[in-house]
Amino acid sequence: MFTKVLILAPHTDDGEFGCGGTMARLLAEGAEVHYAAFSSAEKSLPPGADPGTLVRELRAAMRSLGVRDQWLHVLDYGVRDFPEHRQAILDDLLKLKAAVGPDLVLLPSVNDTHQDHQTLAHEGFRAFKDRTILGYEIPWNNRTFNTESFVLLERAHVDAKVAALQCYQSQLDRFYANENFVRSLAVTRGTQIGASFAEAFEVVRWVIR
Question: Which sequence spans correspond to the domains of the chain?
């Protein structure tokens, strides 16, 4: 159904957590999947780490999934600073819209409580309100989450999501960065619709052309 897809990630690994399995499925089906990370998240690195660590890990994760280098877009907004730069972020989103021309946009849920995620969700809607938009799930940030749309996944898609997330060696000490959690959530969402695995999304806008 979708041939050009744009993933909007506030920080380097948010897209993989929220929709890494869906990315793997879309890529396997021949879609052109672009990934835009709006922060290199240097503030999230351990003390003394190389500032370029997360960008290198992001590139490794994208290659693991099969995202081509030219489909990766990395911007440099500071972590927790997005609300101060709403207009600049909107301008960058409009540039991405013109460059990519997506028919599907995946972005954080509007119910995500992280200020950067909220900003990207709201400005993303402003930029892409004429396209199909789905909000992805970041459970540890979401005040609530409406499971309104599901993407069925095969085990290989979940495996690809796990492999991509394991590229972020600098972040593996995070309480949510573990394989059991990722696989359990995929099983939970699959169980809701009588399938083995799935990812769930909120429908922000659905455009039928």
Answer: 4-205
